[in-house]
TrEMBL record:
Record protein name field: DUF4123 domain-containing protein
Segments forming domain DUF4123: 32-139
InterPro entries linked: DUF4123
């Protein structure tokens, strides 16, 4: 990996005959997304979440745009403020946008039911950590058709090249899913995933909550409880945040705290059954 100026990298890739792509986190960059969408036809961009099991989240998911001109004024706000972590740049062969789209769609959903999650490939921080961890010979399976990528990481622009661009099947044990994550980063990912889920599935409840307090701060508090209680299973965390959200105005469970010496799973099952009982769906 090397450092560079993104505009210089784009110029170099164009001189080599490559096509430029912008991978954009559209949820956090709606203005940039709409500006890039307006003059494009369907062959000039792809919405990654569409035509997948999470198509209902497509409007909040990542987009890939083909870029013709490094000097495009619509790119300037992004390139001038990379600390917004809006995504990253890639170069591909002419006509490879469908292949790049397929590549990332195949790598979107990780884990098995009921412990499935979304892999945020479009986050430049996720990409940067994976590339720092993977050996060069593992890059092709990760980057797929991307020939070269340019991304913001650690306060500077970095470039990584793919030694063998192409289409590869998803490996049985993807190395990029075994990247060590700090505790702070793990909590940030957990917060982001749950926040997106709540806005997609419980928008009205979250909107009502926002009239009384900041939803992001509220979610941080709930995840802190889960951490204190040893609730690490996604099913446990999801139960906590959904139940707390839906009961924000009238609580069913009076005491969420664990009993003395109560194991995390026993604590969870007790509260889960109590919630079902008060909802008329089971017995204690």
């Amino acid at each position: 990996m090397t450092t560079t100026c993104p505009r210089q990298w784009m110029d170099d890739q164009l001189r080599l005959g490559q096509t430029l792509c912008l991978i954009l986190d559209s949820e956090g960059e709606l203005v940039a997304r709409q500006a890039l969408l307006s003059p494009h036809d369907l062959e000039r961009y792809s919405c990654i979440y569409s035509q997948t099991p999470i198509s209902d989240l497509a409007n909040a998911g990542p987009f890939i745009f083909l870029i013709d001109n490094p000097g495009d004024a619509r790119l300037k706000p992004l390139l001038d403020e990379p600390e917004r972590n809006w995504g990253w740049l890639a170069s591909i062969r002419h006509g490879d946008l469908p292949a790049l789209t397929r590549h990332w769609r195949e790598r979107l959903i990780i884990g098995t039911r009921p412990h499935r999650a979304l892999y945020r490939f479009h986050d430049n921080r996720v990409l940067g950590r994976a590339l720092a961890h993977l050996p060069e010979e593992a890059r092709p399976e990760y980057l797929g058709p991307a020939i070269s990528v340019c991304y913001w990481q650690g306060g500077q622009w970095n470039v990584a090249h793919n030694p063998a661009p192409g289409e590869y099947p998803l490996p049985a044990d993807p190395g990029w899913l075994n990247v060590p994550v700090s505790d702070d980063r793990a909590m940030a990912i957990l917060h982001s995933n749950n926040y997106r889920y709540l806005w997609a599935k419980h928008h009205e409840e979250l909107r009502r909550l926002s009239q009384r307090q900041d939803p992001s701060t509220w979610l941080t508090e709930q995840l802190s409880y889960a951490q204190q209680w040893g609730w690490t299973d996604p099913e446990q965390v999801r139960f906590l945040v959904i139940r707390k959200l839906t009961e924000a105005e009238a609580s069913i469970i009076n005491n969420w705290a664990p009993h003395e010496g109560e194991a995390p799973q026993v604590h969870y099952e007790r509260l889960f059954n109590e919630a079902k009982f008060w909802a008329g769906e089971g017995s204690l």
